[in-house]
């Protein structure tokens, strides 16, 4: 049976599992799922299926496995690394209909939700009890918990509160065998810890038990305008050295401020070379004294504004949260990077990025989580200009090299996905990648679950570890390249 | 002696002695690598000779888990005792596995920093705390070893050196092998280095402790603090006879006293600068079990304890406790505790007949992970869940 005929037959079988109305095969409908938040990579899925239950997902996975058809799970499709990029020869399993908050158990500080539930809806459900869900990716108004689990999403406040993995207590998962299993903190290996952040390559989560965090007694936020980015960076170092753990420290440079002003008129201090947003939360008796200390440590700022209430806090955050989209106001196209560096190397790395920018004639706007060294350089270009995209890609790649060179990471929160798989061998040895993929081989020996993501070269699972000699069989057969 | 000669080429090695026994299983050889390269040589040599391998650090938790089915080679990690890098400005430390946690604590304290893990029991190493995944009272605020670990270097069963994570806190590149190795009891590979995120040492602390009349009241007290906005670093319950609820508050000198007063208004009792004597200590008993259940299950857990000689102690906020049980009837007590969650016997007298692990969801997947990492089943065989 040919590829198309095989997919047609599979579509029939999927219709029997979820009903014909929940299986999409019309090319126009399929096209709307051809990318996630990283629109640079596109592929029209062979079939889209919209299940309602874990049992349906298990049956879908079994049907795919029986036919050797690859499948990819997708939540809201807001990912920024192409982790949910579909396969033209495969099935896209969309969890957006599974959006019930099943339980809020405030007494035990947890909630049980389906994977399609929107991140912010968990907080909305918990807030009446005085609780919230701490991971807050910028896309939290639209991104799904299932996607957060797949990507181990962070957000502006993960400096203090950690990442999704620190807030997930259990996951019900459909394994690539098509079985429904519970991954918990209980006895045995921490498969839950390995699963969260595995970018959809180890299975599909169908139910998530999340930890809820008590809403703080008080929140204090300031915006500080500095003449130069170096001075802003020094203030960040001083705050950390003083033993303060802010809920968030965010920095924007002049170019990103310009974009934000154009887009949302955030009214940041005019003429600033950089702004810092520093937010503290917790018991008032702690926050008040620490906040006074932070203000002292920002003494080099030419202007400091303190949010008097939630409305003013919202205004301060507005510029920062709109920054990615705002860059569209000053550049037709841009690449968002997600590299991480040890925070203390910030001044040096920023200077090197500036040099790269001038050398290649490519503008780079810097927006970042300064507290944890997670850079989000926005590399600007005009796709209509010949060669501009390539130059931007080159600068972008060199920024990642800088991060690796300084002991950092190629991704702090967006994931590797399809986009950065080729950079993995620059951060990890072949042995490291081989070892990580042993986990993949344990979960998905057939390699059908979101294949081609995270790792540039798939590991052949039948091999005895460490006994490999000669050329990798996949390379020999032309199915994979070595990087 | 061919194997010993080969091992001695990799690093310091000697024949095993009775005193080296792991739960009664004496190793044929003991080797102590001093570098990651030596450790890799050693593991490769062990693989070539088909030796079963059990790692040990300070040996403070070697009696935890089931006895190994076999131990040809005991790998003593204590010569791997260096701090590789302490990046104080980045609040990160990378250390070798055999480093004593007390020594690490001293160095970090010099910079006003800490690895926010309570030593339970005292005297362990970096590798040991990871291999057993143990954590104490402050897990409520800081999480456990898995939450603080940001990078790991391991030697695989075949002697290959592998890294995961890195030395930055925020990093999602690749699978998080660190979490997989945390709590794996040496069954997946030899941990040789680990990087952790650090926290500033608090400049002020206070303990508030009060006695509860019964388990139901202890739960009410713990819940009152848990749902307050006081951000306690720990809420511990110990009992029975008496049942004590104790709360740790950490912060700045001006901030802690009013929070401590507020906590006392919720649970009564007294405020002190030092903890109750049982704080961050494992309860004494013939069988030591780790019990996990919903925080609100606390009174149920007390009700399941056998009369008289049992004790339970732990994090009433996170729902992780340690129970000390008499050997006689321990299996029944574990079964009863499992009605409310999970209960794993960490220690048990030699020859005790009990189900150490209880039901293990996803055990087939765990076996497949083991088969991938250690296809010859030579690493700490039989020590772990499901006989892994």
Automatic annotation (TrEMBL), chain A:
Q: Does the keyword Flavoprotein apply?
A: yes
The record's listing under InterPro entries reads: FAD-bd_oxidored_4_C, FAD-bd_PCMH, FAD-bd_PCMH-like_sf, FAD-bd_PCMH_sub2, FAD-linked_Oxase-like_C, FAD-linked_OxidoTrans_Type4, Oxid_FAD_bind_N, Vanillyl_alc_oxidase_C-sub2
Q: Which UniProt keywords apply?
A: FAD, Flavoprotein, Oxidoreductase
Question: Which Gene3D superfamilies does this entry report, sorted A to Z?
Answer: 3.30.465.10, 3.30.70.2740, Vanillyl-alcohol Oxidase, Chain A, domain 4
Keyword hit for Ribonucleoprotein? no
Pfam families xrefs: FAD-oxidase_C, FAD_binding_4
Q: Where is the FAD-binding PCMH-type domain?
A: 41-215
Enumerate the cofactors the protein uses.
FAD
Under PANTHER family, the record lists: GLYCOLATE OXIDASE SUBUNIT GLCD (PTHR42934:SF1)
Protein name from the UniProt record? FAD-linked oxidase C-terminal domain-containing protein
What is the species listed in this Swiss-Prot or TrEMBL entry? Actinoallomurus vinaceus
Lineage of the source organism?
Bacteria, Bacillati, Actinomycetota, Actinomycetes, Streptosporangiales
UniProtKB/TrEMBL annotation, chain B:
Q: Which InterPro entries match?
A: FAD-bd_PCMH, FAD-bd_PCMH-like_sf, FAD-bd_PCMH_sub2, FAD-linked_Oxase-like_C, Oxid_FAD_bind_N
Q: Which keywords appear in this protein's UniProt record, sorted alphabetically?
A: FAD, Flavoprotein
User: Pfam families from the entry?
Assistant: FAD_binding_4
**Residue ranges of the FAD-binding PCMH-type domain?**
22-201
The name on file for this protein is FAD-binding oxidoreductase
């Amino acid at each position: 049976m040919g590829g198309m005929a095989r997919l047609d037959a599979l579509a029939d079988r999927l219709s029997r599992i979820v009903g014909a109305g929940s299986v999409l095969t019309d090319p126009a409908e399929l096209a709307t799922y051809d990318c996630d938040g990283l629109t640079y990579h596109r592929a029209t899925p062979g079939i889209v299926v919209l299940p309602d239950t874990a049992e349906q997902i298990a049956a879908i996975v079994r049907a795919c496995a029986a036919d050797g058809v690859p499948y990819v799970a997708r939540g809201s499709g807001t990912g920024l690394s192409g982790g949910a990029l579909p396969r033209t020869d495969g099935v896209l399993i969309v969890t957006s209909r599974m959006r019930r908050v099943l339980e809020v158990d405030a007494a035990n500080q947890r909630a049980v939700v389906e994977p399609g539930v929107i991140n912010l809806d968990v907080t909305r459900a918990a807030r009446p009890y005085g609780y919230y869900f701490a991971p807050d990716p910028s896309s939290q108004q639209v991104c799904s918990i299932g996607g957060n689990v797949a990507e181990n999403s962070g957000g502006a406040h993960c400096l203090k509160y950690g990442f999704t993995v620190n807030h997930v207590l259990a996951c019900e998962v459909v394994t690539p065998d098509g079985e429904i299993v519970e991954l918990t903190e209980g006895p045995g290996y921490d498969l839950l810890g390995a699963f969260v952040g595995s970018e959809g390559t180890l299975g599909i989560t169908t139910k998530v038990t999340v930890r809820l965090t008590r809403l703080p007694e008080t929140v204090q936020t300031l915006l500080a305008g500095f003449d130069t980015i170096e001075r802003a960076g020094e203030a960040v170092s001083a705050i950390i050295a003083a033993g303060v753990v802010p809920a968030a420290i965010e920095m924007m440079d002049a170019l990103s401020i310009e974009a934000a002003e154009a887009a949302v008129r955030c009214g940041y201090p005019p003429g600033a070379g950089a702004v810092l947003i520093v937010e503290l939360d917790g018991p008032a008796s702690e926050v008040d004294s620490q906040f006074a200390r932070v203000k002292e440590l920002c003494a080099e700022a030419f202007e400091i504004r303190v949010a008097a209430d939630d409305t003013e806090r919202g205004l301060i955050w507005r510029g920062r949260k709109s920054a990615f989209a705002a860059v569209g106001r000053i550049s037709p196209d841009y690449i968002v990077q997600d590299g991480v560096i040890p925070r203390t190397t910030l001044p040096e790395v920023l200077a090197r990025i500036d040099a790269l920018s001038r050398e290649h004639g490519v503008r780079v706007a810097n927006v970042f989580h300064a507290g944890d060294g997670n850079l989000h350089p926005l590399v600007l270009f005009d796709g209509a200009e010949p060669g501009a995209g390539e130059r931007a890609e080159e600068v972008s790649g060199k920024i990642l090299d800088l991060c690796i060179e300084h002991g950092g990471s190629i991704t702090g929160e967006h994931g590797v996905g399809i986009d950065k798989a080729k950079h993995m061998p620059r951060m990890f040895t072949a042995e490291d990648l081989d070892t990580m993929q042993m986990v993949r081989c344990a979960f998905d020996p057939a390699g059908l679950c979101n294949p081609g993501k995270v790792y540039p070269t798939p590991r052949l699972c039948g091999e005895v570890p460490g006994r490999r000699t000669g050329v990798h069989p996949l390379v020999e057969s032309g199915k994979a390249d070595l990087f | 002696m061919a194997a010993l000669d080969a091992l001695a080429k990799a690093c310091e090695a000697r024949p095993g002695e009775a005193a080296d026994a792991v739960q009664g299983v004496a190793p044929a050889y003991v080797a102590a690598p001093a570098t990651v390269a030596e450790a890799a040589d050693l593991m490769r040599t062990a693989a070539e000779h088909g030796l079963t391998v059990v790692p040990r650090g300070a040996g403070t938790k070697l009696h935890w888990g089931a006895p190994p089915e076999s131990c040809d080679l005991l790998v003593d990690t204590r010569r791997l005792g260096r701090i590789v890098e302490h990046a104080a400005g980045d609040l990160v430390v990378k250390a070798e596995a055999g480093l004593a946690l007390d020594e690490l604590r001293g160095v970090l304290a010099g910079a006003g920093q800490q690895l926010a893990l309570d030593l339970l029991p005292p005297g362990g190493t970096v590798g040991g705390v990871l291999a057993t995944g143990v954590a104490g009272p402050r897990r409520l605020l800081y999480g456990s070893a898995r939450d603080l670990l940001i990078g790991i270097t391991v030697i695989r069963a075949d002697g290959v050196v592998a890294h995961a994570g890195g030395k930055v806190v925020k990093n999602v590149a690749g699978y998080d092998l660190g979490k997989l190795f945390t709590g794996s009891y040496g069954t997946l590979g030899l941990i040789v280095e680990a990087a952790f995120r650090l926290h500033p040492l608090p400049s002020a602390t206070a303990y508030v402790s009060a006695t509860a009349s019964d388990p139901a009241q202890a739960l009410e007290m713990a819940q009152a603090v848990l749902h307050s906005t006081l951000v306690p670093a720990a809420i511990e319950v110990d009992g029975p006879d008496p049942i004590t609820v104790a709360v740790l508050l950490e912060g700045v000198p001006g901030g802690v006293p009013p929070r401590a007063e507020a906590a006392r208004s919720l649970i009564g009792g007294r405020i002190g600068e030092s903890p109750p004597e049982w704080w961050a200590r494992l309860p004494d008993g013939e069988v030591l079990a780790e019990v996990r259940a919903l925080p609100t299950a606390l009174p149920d857990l007390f009700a399941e304890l056998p009369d008289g000689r049992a004790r339970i102690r732990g994090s009433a906020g996170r729902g992780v406790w340690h129970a000390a049980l008499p050997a006689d009837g321990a299996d029944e007590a574990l079964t009863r505790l499992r009605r409310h969650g999970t209960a794993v016997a960490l220690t048990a007298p030699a020859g005790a007949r009990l189900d150490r692990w209880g039901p293990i969801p996803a055990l087939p997947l765990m076996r497949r992970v083991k088969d991938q990492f250690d296809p010859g089943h030579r690493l700490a065989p039989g020590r772990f869940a499901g006989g892994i």
